[in-house]
Amino acid sequence: MTTRLTIPDADAMEALGARLAALLAAGDLVVLDGPLGAGKTTLTRGVGAALGVRGSVTSPTFVLAREHPTEAGVPLVHVDAYRLNSAVELDDLDLDYDGAIVVVEWGAGKLDGVAESWIDVAISRAAADDSRAVTIDGHGSRWGELDAALAAPAT
Ligand code: ADP
Ligand code: MG
Question: I need a labelling partner for 57 at 20 to 30 A (CA). Which of 32, 41, 72, 133 fits?
Answer without folding.
Answer: 133
